[in-house]
């Protein structure tokens, strides 16, 4: 695996897409919970014939690994273990530059190579390790810095698209209901099935508006508020 690190808007996602196109068939490990494929989650995709095919998702439940580092490391590692040995893969990360967290992430994922885009301090924090292959790259010249409003709009659009084919269904629910938060619905192995909006609660079950398919073993509240405009229901 090639793991891409660096600040926000350095061009990591653009570079990842180029590498996938060049590889043909390869895996994409999307580790950006803020601006990735689905906010609050990590995703593993198989890139084949120019398309990204979802393999599995894990729930982080927040838009940054900051403050949830242990959960983020485990969530990433669970997906990385699904990549067949020897398969080409690219890991695309968020813009957190915490050297301690990034070193732990590299230790957990054990990539063949790490590319740091536009963050010399982070590069130095990793490059002293003789057992790590780390390269410093300049930010891509075409990378454009997004405004906070653009980022919020992007997250909202992806969440609303996620709920496009949502319907009501019951799922196990423990604890007091949180009506203004999204719930993450998990399968019996702990992988993410989909988000849910809680509509009703009672008797250890919740009625959710959700696109989730398959058996739901657990519903976990996240730190994500309902997208605006509000979801139906």
UniProtKB/TrEMBL annotation:
Instruction: Show the SUPFAM superfamilies listed in the entry.
Output: P-loop containing nucleoside triphosphate hydrolases
- Coiled coil, from the record: none
User: InterPro entries this protein is in?
Assistant: CLP1_P (IPR032319), P-loop_NTPase (IPR027417)
**Annotated ranges, domain Clp1 P-loop:** 6-164
Top-level division of the source organism's lineage: Bacteria
Which is an annotated Pfam family here? CLP1_P
Q: What is this protein called?
A: Clp1 P-loop domain-containing protein
**Whose protein is this, by species?**
Thermus thermophilus (strain ATCC BAA-163 / DSM 7039 / HB27)
Q: Lineage of the native species?
A: Bacteria, Thermotogati, Deinococcota, Deinococci, Thermales
């Amino acid at each position: 695996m090639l793991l891409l690190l660096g600040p926000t808007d350095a061009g990591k996602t653009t570079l990842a897409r180029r590498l996938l196109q060049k590889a043909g068939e390869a895996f994409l490990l999307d580790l950006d919970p803020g601006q990735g494929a689905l906010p609050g989650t990590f995703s593993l995709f198989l890139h084949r014939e120019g398309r990204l095919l979802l393999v599995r998702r894990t729930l982080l439940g927040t838009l940054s690994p900051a403050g949830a580092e242990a959960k983020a490391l485990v969530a990433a590692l669970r997906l990385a273990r699904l990549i067949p040995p020897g398969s080409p893969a690219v890991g695309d990360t968020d813009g957190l530059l915490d050297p301690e967290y990034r070193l732990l992430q590299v230790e957990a994922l054990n990539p063949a190579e790490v590319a740091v885009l536009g963050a010399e301090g982070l590069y130095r924090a990793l490059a002293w390790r003789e057992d790590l292959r780390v390269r410093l790259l300049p930010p891509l010249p075409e990378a454009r810095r997004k405004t906070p409003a653009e980022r919020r709009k992007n997250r909202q659009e992806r969440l609303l698209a996620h709920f496009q084919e949502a319907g009501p269904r019951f799922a196990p629910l423990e604890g007091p209901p949180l009506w203004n938060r999204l719930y993450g619905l998990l399968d019996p192995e702990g992988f993410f099935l989909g988000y849910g909006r809680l509509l009703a609660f009672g008797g250890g079950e919740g009625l959710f508006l959700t696109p989730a398919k398959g058996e739901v073993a657990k519903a976990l509240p996240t730190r994500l508020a309902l997208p605006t405009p509000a979801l139906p229901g």
